[in-house]
Specification:
Elements lengths: L13 H16 L6 E5 L15 E6 L6 E2 L12 E7 L8 H11 E12 L27 H11 L1 E9 L13 H9 L6 E8 L8 H7 L18
Parallel strand pairs: 1-2, 1-4, 2-3, 4-5
Antiparallel strand pairs: 5-7, 6-7
């Protein structure tokens, strides 16, 4: 759909961005367990996941930058076989983001964790879309989805978001430093306006929002007893 970045260095301050994302993600990964961890997408392949204790770590991409090349809507992975999944700036550049999440749901085990990094449209990062020379550059040429919208998609698929973090309190235009006073003030006083969000979502046994078929199946099947009827009132 959209022209996609091949690496973090193609984004403004890309190396610093990646380091900040990894710093926010590492405590989540340190609590992940299982046998298989999968990184999906071009930028995800570069994320350092050494803080995870999961021994088998693989990556998939649509470019020869990973262990295997594939389409994100048709992952060459067995159903219910992956414990943890990392997706970084993936939905922003794909035509069918919900279809990708459905495919992720298919390959993930129950109780597994999905770590999803996205661009926050409710932040100063969106200012770049208003600048003509920026709106066609990374990351502004992608679609930004609010974390609430992504949460809704995940809930439909049977995930529960157990943690959300915001990162990078900067519009990525101009000089960037981790030690800026106003950035630290934004993080302390208005934490929801971070330019990027990280969702830690756990896959549950059953969806939080039951489907109509599930409700119908669970509904009691009341039936009138054959001998039931109106009993005449006895006269005194």
């Amino acid at each position: 759909m959209h022209n996609k970045p091949n690496s973090w260095i193609e984004l403004p301050h890309g190396e610093l961005l990646k380091q900040n994302i990894e710093q926010a993600l590492s405590p989540m990964l340190s609590q992940s367990f299982g046998y298989h961890l999968l990184k999906i997408g071009r930028l995800s392949t570069e994320i350092n996941t050494e803080h995870s204790s999961i021994p088998n770590q693989l990556s998939l991409s649509d470019k020869p930058l990973a262990h295997a090349i594939c389409e994100y809507t048709h992952l060459p992975i067995e159903t219910s076989s992956i414990d943890s999944i990392v997706c970084s700036l993936l939905l922003e550049y794909e035509a069918n983001p919900f279809k990708i999440l459905r495919e992720i749901n298919r390959i993930q085990v129950s109780g597994g964790h999905l770590y999803l990094i996205g661009c926050n449209p409710m932040s100063m990062l969106s200012f770049g879309k208003l600048v003509p020379k920026r709106k066609h550059a990374y990351p502004w040429n992608g679609r930004f989805f609010t974390s609430h919208r992504v949460r809704d998609w995940l809930e439909v698929l049977g995930y529960q978001v157990v943690e959300e973090k915001k990162a990078i309190y900067h519009p990525l235009i101009g000089k960037y430093s981790d030690y800026s006073l106003w950035q630290n003030m934004l993080e302390d006083w208005i934490p929801q306006v971070g330019s990027f969000y990280i969702l830690n979502a756990k896959k549950l046994e059953c969806p939080l929002t039951p489907s109509k078929a599930w409700k119908k199946k669970r509904a009691p099947n009341w039936a009138t007893a054959p001998s039931a009827g109106r009993v005449p009132r006895l006269e005194d």
